[in-house]
Amino acid sequence: MPKYKRILLKLSGEVLAGENHTGIDFRVVQDFAGKLADIRNAGVELSLVIGGGNMLRGRDAQELGFDRVSLDGIGMLGTVMNALAVKSALENLNVPAKVLSAVGMPPIAELYRRELARDYLKAGNVVFFAAGTGHPFFSTDTAAALRAAELGLDCIVKGTKVDGIYDRDPNKFPDAVFFPELTYSEAIRRNLAVMDTAAFALCRESRIPLWVMSVQTPGWEKNIIEGSNIGTTVKED
Asked: How would you class 60 by CB atoms within 10 Å of its CB: exposed for 0-12, middle for 13-18, buried for 19 or more?
């Protein structure tokens, strides 16, 4: 039996770009969808928030003088494109999936409603929450925390390129210290960059545990199903 029955998986858009670093690598999407199907077929109610970083590098554009509100709108559209790509790959595997957007855009995606999301999850759909919160200045991390809180989910799993949370970037600093467990208060105090402060604070208030792990390690989907003690767990005592 899965340790967590109702999971929101938060991913960066870069995961879908593969070695291209930008855009969508559909072979990567196919492989990723197979792993999602395994999680769902193990009895997990699975939802996802996928960032849009593979479509837009907002910081670079801001340095050139582009408006933050407009850039955040472009980023929201990028999250919808990513969600639609993975949804299509899941449907090719006969796994039902739905995309709910914080910004209405029928017939591409349905407008998010909490009751609708609950119904779709209970019916066995993999549900994608796209377009962030629908507002500029809020990250997709905050959107993930918001949806998990609204739906009373068991856990947020943040899939990264690193195997957990460190006190600094382990790719740049070989002596970086790994944290197997943290409280949200500690994560905020240390200003750890794995999620923004607003997302950490919302998870703390809602008492939803956060599990940070690498989605580039073979078998990561089995770790989610089995509740393996890998990565970093963040929760409030």
From this structure: exposed
What is the pLDDT, as a whole number, of residue 39? Answer: 97
Instruction: Say which amino acid occupies 229.
Output: N
Task: Report whether 141 contacts 208 (CB < 8 A).
Answer: no
Domain spans of the chain, in order of start: 6-234
Confirm if 126 and 95 have CB atoms less than 8 A apart: yes
At 31, list the tokens: 């492989």
How far does Cα 23 stand from its chain's mean position?
Answer: 17
Residue 23's φ and ψ, nearest 5 degrees, are 75, -165
Distance CA 56, CA 179 (A): 31
Q: CA–CA separation, 216 vs 63, rounded Å?
A: 31
What is the token pair recorded at 121?
A: 């999850």
DSSP 8-class letter at 116: H
Question: How far apart are alpha carbons 22 and 139 in whole angstroms?
Answer: 19
Series of mean pLDDT values for 10-residue runs along the chain (237 residues): 90 91 94 97 97 83 87 94 98 98 94 98 98 95 97 96 92 93 93 90 94 93 89 89
Topology, domain 6-234: Carbamate kinase (3.40.1160)
